[in-house]
Amino acid sequence: MDTQTLKTFLLLAKLKNFTQTAEQMFVAQSTVTNRIADLEAELGKPLFTRNKRSVALTAEGHTFCQYAQRMIDMENAALQDIHAIKQYESSLHVGTTNTIYECHLQRYMKEWIQEHPYAALKITIGHSNDLLRALQDGILDVAYCYMPLYKKGIDCQVFAIDELVLVTKSADALWQNGIKKEELPRTKYLFCNFALQEVGTFIRELFPPHYQFPFEIDNSTKLIPYLLDLGGISFLPESLAAPYLEDGSLVKIPLLDFETPKICCYKIEKKK
């Protein structure tokens, strides 16, 4: 089970086309076919169903996808660590969600680089679940995410606590005196699909079931330009909104009859 075979499997799982997979890997189509056949023989399970019109993953293929990616990631991490030994005195691989990086971690990483001029720093931006898996696989040295991990051999500490605030651009004075929970569905709400503990569920439950938001994005740091240009309202972590609140481009909307949950950020690493 070599790396090229695993990469071939993952690309075919993505493209679902043998010809396109061969073209992107610069190999003959027969090579792709043989690699997949060898992999299926080694695993003893079919990974794809194929006919003249389509290629699809089997249930076993879906399960194997995450393990194949993890094996490639672990091999890459091992090679980088081995080569870094000759180039640097030490190295640090940090995993973080995008929001935590933007709100809290970036300035610390800059300080770390200045304080450790002979060390290599690698930062991986990802989702909490993927970061925790990479940490346990030994790919990451430390993970900053919104999900705690309480497990033997793991040190999990609260890194930062954030407030969730409702904001709008300063030129929009419609809700400057505050808003009630029942009024939210009547607003132009720009929705960010937060993967922040119960925060995402909390926001969705403020609206009717299956409510269709006029705008939706899965990255809170990318939402602000839309908020400033298009208007409307949105919940954001206060640390993310802080620069815009300070310069007056955004303002808070008082909540009249409900409160928001706290957002906890965790620093997680293996005990040493």
How is this structure best summarized?
The protein is an alpha/beta fold and 272 residues long. The chain has helices at residues 3-15, 18-25, 29-43, 59-87, 98-115, 128-136, 199-204, 224-230, 238-246; strands at residues 48-50, 55-57, 90-96, 119-125, 142-145, 154-162, 164-169, 190-192, 215-217, 233-237, 250-252, 263-270.
What topology, given as strand order, has the largest sheet? 4-3-5-12-6
Helicity, as a percent range = 40-55%
Overall SS class: alpha/beta
What's the total count of β strands? 12
Mean pLDDT: 88
Shape: globular
What's the main sheet like? 5 strands, mixed
Radius of gyration: 23 Å
Low-confidence stretches are: none
Order of helices and strands: HHHEEHEHEHEEEEHEHEHEE
Question: Multimeric state of these chains?
Answer: single chain
β-strand amount: 15-25%
- The N- to C-terminal Cα distance equals 32 Å
Number of helices: 9
Description:
The mean pLDDT is 88. Helix 7 (199-204) links the parallel strand 8 (190-192) and strand 9 (215-217). The chain has helices at residues 3-15, 18-25, 29-43, 59-87, 98-115, 128-136, 199-204, 224-230, 238-246, and strands at residues 48-50, 55-57, 90-96, 119-125, 142-145, 154-162, 164-169, 190-192, 215-217, 233-237, 250-252, 263-270. The chain is an alpha/beta fold. Helix 1 packs across helix 4 and helix 2 (18-25) crosses helix 3 (29-43). The protein is built from 9 helices and 12 strands.
